[in-house]
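It is worth pausing here to work through a concrete case rather than discussing structure prediction in the abstract. The textbook approach is simple: state the sequence, then state the predicted structure, then interpret. We follow exactly that order.
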Amino acid sequence: MRLRTTATAMAAALMATGLSPAWADMEAARAFLDAEIGDLSSLTREEQEAEMQWFIDAAAPHAGMEIKVVSETITTHEYESKVLAPAFTAITGITVTHDLIGEGDVVEKLQTQMQTGENIYDAYINDSDLIGTHWRYQQARNLTDWMAGDGAAVTNPNLDLEDFVGLQFVTGPDGKVYQLPDQQFANLYWFRYDWFSDAKTQEDFKAKYGYDLGVPLNWTAYEDIAEFFTGRDMSYVGGPATGVYGSMDYGKKDPSLGWRYTDAWMSMAGMGDVGEPNGLPVDEWGIRVDENSRPVGSCVARGGATNDAAAVYAVTKAIEWLQKYTPPEAQGMTFGEAGPVPAQGNIAQQMFWYTAFTADMVKPGLPVMNEDGTPKWRMAPSPHGAYWQDGMKVGYQDAGAWTLMESTPVERAQAAWLYAQFVTSKTVDVKKSHVGLTFIRESTIQHDSFTERAPELGGLVEFYRSPARVQWSPTGTNIPDYPKLAQLWWQNIGDAMSGAKTPQEALDALCEEQERVLERLERAGVQGDIGPKLNEPQDPHVWLDAPGAPVAKLDNEEPAGETVNYDELIASWRN
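Step two, the predicted structure:
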């Protein structure tokens, strides 16, 4: 489907009204709705105008204020910063500066505000991966109490929290909501549907491996498919004759290497316990909590799983596939550098692929696009490793969410809260989702415009409408201080990637460093009776012989490969 030009059309419409941003009224809102939203909303035009009128009235006491908010730089947030922030300013009279910076920089600014109490930003869009941090430190306003207290007069009666598909990700063990979802995307399996559907390719694969080429259900099948396509001449189906690779990944020692593993790679392998949205009592970071949600260990000797056999298997396979089946330059790439590579047309599949790249993968003229605007590729659930069991988390969803810090003055937080609700409102969310393809509302996912556009998006809509999506989730509440712990991962995994340490040595070092952070938090007592309280070390076999995580090495880490036909998979979701 064809989407309207955004910023230019809206700016022209607002100028035509003769209104300046200081003149906040319904004429500016109508100009915005005409130029930008149209019928791309889950609300009728009458309902849209009613919602805009509420924003105008609620913002009146704050008109003339200037606030600053911040987010990472992705397509969704660029749209908010360049289009929705100016519209909000024109409609409400509250001037918003929406800064776009790197994800790591967002966390650093947030951490600085937590440590100093200085109000750097009036609101943050930061990942819900910090939910354990926010719940324990209590430096972020819990929105449940905020909406009933200081934020009551500026809370949209049409907010409809139950419509947010990621609400469980931003809810603490105390049942309080600490963040408001703004964008969400999953890491899924990406593959060349045109190559996999080709009769000759299917025949050649079955002749070599003894089973059908299809969406891999386990890591054995993924590895077989990676081996099969690497170096294969695909010119007979319009692909490259040389330079074809069966996998894509990245391996540079960089902060993004840490996300590659904490973003559920370990649970995909089968490390951790069964549980939704995260393994309990041991999560996908390998950290165990007690019955009171207090972190008690990371190493096997304390009941953690960060260095158990499943974790070693996860890292070992990632390194092996990176070295054997990806372009040589991938080993020196970061997340951002590796992301566009599959669109170049020489990659057969990628297990760890973020749906945030969808918007850039469907551009006309790319080698992975058909002339009719449909993609040559599809996305599907990621396969799981040899240690995985039914009921385990099988993938990651990034849920960027609005966070109000306690250190932000109430009046500024109120104004920022209005903006946060504006950019996530039912009025604008369908259009915003068409731009960034990062769904947060059930009403948006089910909108007719996405039924129409689904064939152009390679399975994205089908995934978000399927029951499968609940097995994909962000980091949970076992992690008591995300900024401190996250930096340990890329440094230690990087040692394994470079060959400086074996995977076992790197994970041993990682779990010990995680426990040193947990020990410091325990001694400091800054998180009270929900902070870490480490178990005493024991013989690892005490834990390995007990049910659940951690686990001992399997006799067979290479079960028979299993695949499923993609079209049958999608049909099962629809039914």
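Step three, interpretation. The radius of gyration is 24 Å. Confidence is low (pLDDT under 50) at residues 1-23.
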